[in-house]
Amino acid sequence: MSRAERLFELYHFLDVKSGRSLEEIARRFGVSERTVFRDLGSLQEKGVLIEQADGRYRRMGGRPQAVALDSGELEIVRLAISNPAIERRRGPLGRALATLKSKLDAALHARQRPEPPSLPATKHESPAGAADPSSAAREVVLRFAAELAPLIEGGGHHPGEELRRIADGAIEYRVRASCLDQIARWVVGFGGGVRVESPPELAARVRELAAGVLISVDQGGASPRKR
After folding, report:
1. Where are the domains of the chain?
2. pLDDT at 23
3. Phi-psi region at 130: left, alpha or beta (left = phi > 0; alpha = psi -120 to 50)
4. With 0-12 CB in 10 A as exposed, 13-18 as middle and 19+ as buried, what is 223?
5. Least confidently predicted of 100-104, 126-130, 173-177
């Protein structure tokens, strides 16, 4: 086991409420207690919060914080972990790196797509600006493909939205809205990768709009050649 792999596994090994003793850690990784002490110091130097009490060490918990990176920074990280020596790593560290690469690829792919239109407000406004009382709010359920997850998880598309990550990496998106036509246009703006789960009327409207786009493209194709 390389030192990088040992530090990675130590990071997770310390995630216990009761903590671990130096002897316990040394036995787990087959190293001396002096090496364990150095490894703990290395984790702390990298920003890992480690608490020591009564001769036992544990990693301080806390919710993961989102880090905003621009496309250039994402590409740098992606290139850095594409080193063949890194890609050949196996075990927990290798699996974690593979997952990280997949997330970076999805994020870069999503940022290369045209910016979708913003989701409009749920109230259907009349020309006078008053809410249309005939438009009752409906629950909308959408399923976004895994490659769109980084874009959707950015949030802020609509007040009251609820997101849930599904096992295959897709995103289940829920929101209550009254103007299904506007939401249908928002969905079509993604150019695919979105499936309408409910309501059926929204799915029908999305199909209608998508068909209209195809017809427009077909009719606006290549101009006839001049003889």
Report:
1. 3-59, 71-112, 138-219
2. 94
3. beta
4. exposed
5. 126-130
d(CA 146, CA 172) in angstroms, rounded, equals 10
Task: Identify the architecture of domain 3-59 in CATH.
Answer: Orthogonal Bundle (1.10)
Q: What is the mean pLDDT of the chain?
A: 74
Cα 18 to chain centroid distance, Å, stands at 32
Instruction: Provide mean pLDDT across the span 137-149.
Output: 87
Q: Where are the alpha helices (DSSP H) in the chain?
A: 3-13, 22-29, 33-45, 71-80, 84-87, 91-112, 149-152, 180-188, 200-219
Q: Does domain 138-219 have CATH number 3.30.70?
A: yes
Of the candidates 154, 143, 68, 74, the one whose C-alpha atom is nearest the C-alpha of residue 109 is: 74
- Given a cut of 80, is residue 130 above it in pLDDT? no
When mean pLDDT is compared across 40-49, 101-110, 129-138, the lowest value belongs to 129-138
Task: Please spell the DSSP secondary structure of 29-59, one letter per residue.
Answer: HT--HHHHHHHHHHHHHTT--EEEETTEEEE
138 Cα distance to chain centroid = 26
